[in-house]
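Structure ticket #2291
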Amino acid sequence: MSTKVERTLAIEKLTKVFSGAAGIYLADNNKISVSQVMKLRVNVRKKGMRFIVVKNSLARIAAQRSDKKSIADFFKGPTAVIVASDDVAAPARIIKDFQKENKNLLAVKAAFVDGSVFSADEVLKLADIPNREVLLAQFVGCLKQPMSRLAGALDGIITKLVGTIDAVKGKKVNTSAQSSINHETDINS
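Resolution: structure written out below.
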């Protein structure tokens, strides 16, 4: 950044990005080739997130101005930032997948997720959390199971009741038929 105006605009833009983010992941982008960065950017964008390589001094100021002050100290050395607004664990999954393919690259520095700072080890644990759709499906399944059991139990009770009523009805019909046969026999005698 050569001019003060450009620096100010960059800080304002970063402050706005940081303020609107639910999750901010900081990683060391040292030794990553341009093709690897491009592939990573594509994966990040597919998930609706942003991948930004930042100037640390500007990012520290932007973090201080936003409500993400606790990550300001992690802006040291070559830093890549992945910003998520919805699925806050998605960047952790992307980073973990990238690290599987590219050993010793994109080391996590820290993450700011829903008001808390997470260390590198904790970030990799976040990657194991299922995404929102899977969690909702699991929740619905948990709600559905007791309802299905209740419906099955009620169905069994109703089936037994109908069977009992049919049996009683059949017994009355048989008793009535037997009674009329006996009555006819008495008349004919």
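Closing remark: The helical segments are 4-19, 34-46, 56-65, 90-101, 120-126, 132-188.
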